[in-house]
Specification:
It is a single chain. The protein has 186 residues and is α/β, with parallel strands linked by helices. Helices cover 41% and strands 12% of the residues. The chain is built from five helices and four strands, in the order αβαβαβααβ. The chain has a four-stranded parallel sheet, with helices on both faces. β2, α3 (103-123) and β3 (129-135) form a beta-alpha-beta unit. The two termini are 30 Å apart.
Length: 186
């Protein structure tokens, strides 16, 4: 992204030392965080009975604990008007269509939905908004891994533009909400 007010860091959310790097970066480079977009994700496509405890935990380390820990690190830098957007999945929405082999992934996406709803309540008096975008099919490498050969109606750039706009403006209209951003499923 070519904007002096936007910084992109490549880190592994499952590693404590990478989380410490983020905290140091924020403390020395910025004084506040206006927008935080949780877009990291790990996928495991495997029948539930074949998933090891370690594999299940690894998905949760990135998809749930990474979101929780990064949010915790950023809390001191969030202020009135800040917006935390968590990218989830339609697979994490109760009552939505579920797909075999995605137990770890979909359940982790449900967990971050609940976490975001709780944080919206906890920080509403400070004016910090927490919202979730539960995405449907978007043409990405992850979608191809989960559904080989499926062609999604939206490409990653189209969805990125939507997420960017929502991150900047969605907190004017929503807090503690889960928006289902889906026109189709595989």
């Amino acid at each position: 992204l070519e904007n002096e007010n936007i910084s992109c860091l490549s880190i592994d959310l499952s590693l404590e030392e990478d989380l410490e790097k983020i905290q140091q970066f924020i403390a020395t480079t910025w004084k506040k965080v206006d927008v935080l977009i949780h877009n990291a994700g790990a996928l495991l496509l495997k029948p539930f009975g074949e998933i090891s405890a370690q594999e299940f935990e690894n998905i949760y380390k990135v998809n749930v604990f990474g979101v929780a820990n990064l949010t915790r690190i950023c809390i001191p830098y969030l202020q009135k008007g800040s917006h935390v957007v968590t990218i989830s999945s339609m697979g994490g929405i109760q009552g939505s269509m579920k797909f075999a082999g995605l137990a770890a992934y979909s359940s982790s996406k449900g967990a971050v939905i609940t976490l975001s709803e709780l944080l919206a309540e906890e920080y509403k008096d400070k004016g910090i908004a927490f919202n979730v975008l539960a995405l449907g099919a978007v043409q990405t490498e992850m979608l191809q891994e989960a559904f080989p050969g499926y062609e999604a109606p939206l490409n990653a750039k189209e969805m990125a533009d939507y997420i960017f706009d929502f991150a900047l403006n969605g907190n004017k209209y929503f807090n503690g909400k889960v928006l289902q951003v889906s026109s189709t499923t595989p």
